[in-house]
Amino acid sequence: MSSTTLWYASQATGIVSLVMFSAVMVLGALVRRRAKLPGLPRFGTLGLHRSISLLALVFLSIHILTAVADSYVSISLLDVVLAFTSAYRPLWLGLGTVAFDLLVAVVLTSVLRRRIGHRAWRAVHWLAYAMWPVAVVHGFTLGAGDGRTMHGWALALTGGCVLAVLGSVAYRSAGPRREATPAGLVAAHRTAPVRPTSETARSAGTPDHRRLAASSAGRTHKEA
């Protein structure tokens, strides 16, 4: 494959990855707020979030491999995982490496979620909010400054992704900090004090049953 073909493939898959990861961020905010998309149930929003995440990883892998194979610049596989070591624009390429490393951490902890626990997984999952802006800066600086300039539509698309993600972050931040979850509801139900009813009091012979019986007898006497 020619260098030009690889460059276009790398740029195209990079833009698609940005759009998909932006969609993942937006859907993540909707899942957190227990919102749903029109025509989809709430669990459908969660399934769409997972599916787009996996598809975004595929396009990101193609983006990285075509960038490494492109002979126009010198990028090694080591530069993909070790930030700021590349001879080619080390700062801006290094930001892409940082974003990729953060993404790997999020993916691995998601795979090991049951073993490491929900709290640890949640702490690492917040790295996605750091990964996304770093990836945007990486794509903008390299795409617009490597001698083969970024098209205006790509810049507009990047701007649209930024606005969408900022809006979703604002939407998520506007919600309550503590949300009711099925597990929380079950725990609250188990720990809440239970007031015995007349049937349960009668079977247990509790003082509540005697008070209920006395109250009923008093009302009958007054009516008589």
From TrEMBL:
<dbReference type="InterPro" id="IPR013130">
    <property type="entry name" value="Fe3_Rdtase_TM_dom"/>
</dbReference>
<feature type="transmembrane region" description="Helical">
    <location>
        <begin position="6"/>
        <end position="31"/>
    </location>
</feature>
<keyword id="KW-1133">Transmembrane helix</keyword>
<feature type="transmembrane region" description="Helical">
    <location>
        <begin position="92"/>
        <end position="112"/>
    </location>
</feature>
<feature type="region of interest" description="Disordered">
    <location>
        <begin position="182"/>
        <end position="224"/>
    </location>
</feature>
<keyword id="KW-0472">Membrane</keyword>
<feature type="transmembrane region" description="Helical">
    <location>
        <begin position="124"/>
        <end position="144"/>
    </location>
</feature>
<feature type="transmembrane region" description="Helical">
    <location>
        <begin position="150"/>
        <end position="171"/>
    </location>
</feature>
<keyword id="KW-0812">Transmembrane</keyword>
<feature type="transmembrane region" description="Helical">
    <location>
        <begin position="52"/>
        <end position="72"/>
    </location>
</feature>
<dbReference type="Pfam" id="PF01794">
    <property type="entry name" value="Ferric_reduct"/>
</dbReference>
<dbReference type="GO" id="GO:0016020">
    <property type="term" value="C:membrane"/>
</dbReference>
<protein>
    <submittedName>
        <fullName>Ferric reductase like transmembrane component</fullName>
    </submittedName>
</protein>
<feature type="domain" description="Ferric oxidoreductase">
    <location>
        <begin position="13"/>
        <end position="135"/>
    </location>
</feature>
